[in-house]
Amino acid sequence: MPPTNKLLVIGQCVATSLKNAVKVSFRTQELDENLFMYFQKKRVLYAHDENKVCKLGDIVLIKQLAQQWTKEITHEVVKVVFPLGDVIDPLTGKKSIGPIYEEHLDRRIRSLGQEVTGYLKYKDEQQKKISDN
């Protein structure tokens, strides 16, 4: 596997056993010299996460360290771009569940008189707790 000389990388956090570090998986395009076609290759980097802000499945931005800490840890976490389960449309800034905006789905369910379940029920309970305090 050729070395990756990436200064900034966006990838997904996957399971790791290292302390204060996260394993970030990302994909690159590599040219096959025989076919002259690009193919996706999966890459993995280890990044230092001192504050433990990353959770499994988060999309994070990492940058290369000025000096490599250990043989494995070569990058550090800059920020969590998208937390798992909290998908925000970059154009509108609205939360979405699948292809539908959360507020549209909420309005549609309530207008049909259906029982609110799942994530929307959880969201209502959280808002009720906040308003009670």
TrEMBL record:
Record-level GO cellular component terms: mitochondrial small ribosomal subunit
InterPro entries cross-referenced by the UniProt entry: NA-bd_OB-fold, Ribosomal_uS17, Ribosomal_uS17m_metazoa
Keyword set, alphabetical order: Ribonucleoprotein, Ribosomal protein
Pfam family, one: Ribosomal_S17
Example GO biological process: mitochondrial translation
Gene Ontology terms, MF aspect: structural constituent of ribosome
Transmembrane segments: none
UniProt record similarity statement: Belongs to the universal ribosomal protein uS17 family.
Descriptive protein name: 28S ribosomal protein S17, mitochondrial
Taxonomic path: Eukaryota, Metazoa, Ecdysozoa, Arthropoda, Myriapoda
